[in-house]
Amino acid sequence: MEVSGPLTRRMTMIIVSSNGLSRRSFCGGICFLLAGCATAPQSYFSGSNDPYASIYGPVTDGPYIIPALELDLTANRDLLRQEVAFAGPYRPGTVVVNVMQRRLYLVQRGGRALRYAVGVGREEALNFRGSAVIGRKADWPRWIPTADMIRRMPNYAAYAGGMPGGLENPLGARALYLYVGDRDSYFRIHGTNEPTSIGTAVSSGCLRLFNQDIIDLYRRVQLGAPVVVL
Known about the structure:
nine-stranded mixed β-sheet, mainly beta, L,D-transpeptidase catalytic domain-like
């Protein structure tokens, strides 16, 4: 799993996709993202020199503007994505989730991985365990609570017919659907409308990331990519 490793601090390019989404990539041989710091919770990303300002600032994505992340980086800098050293028997492109660490790793070449903080199931029994593949990808996905979710959270019954994608949708900006064989497991890796929940155990079993992070992961992960949840 994760070992250690220095971070490169050189910004190299700005990529603007066809749908208007701005992405900043920080590279040192391979593309990855840096750590930064701030002193208090605030929308400090506007006009900041912090290298994360362009990563976790406001994002225009289709008809939506994802707000800048508000986070005390002095206390929470480890929640932000970065490249780390990684050891494990997984080929590049594999998604490895360590539930206890509340971290997701996208395995890269050369003993490296991109690390993202995640929110996990509020109870151990709710978490997916084992191997799956990315069987479907969706941007601004529709959310339909399962029958089990409605039993545990009766207020979800109001959305039994589904909630359209949008900023208030619990699945956030993107969703990666975990399949076991050719069957939907009903577990997802997705964004969130509750960024303060990242790094905690609060979900109904799915794995949630900051919206800025799920957009980044979504564009890197291919359909059919293996997923291992430890």
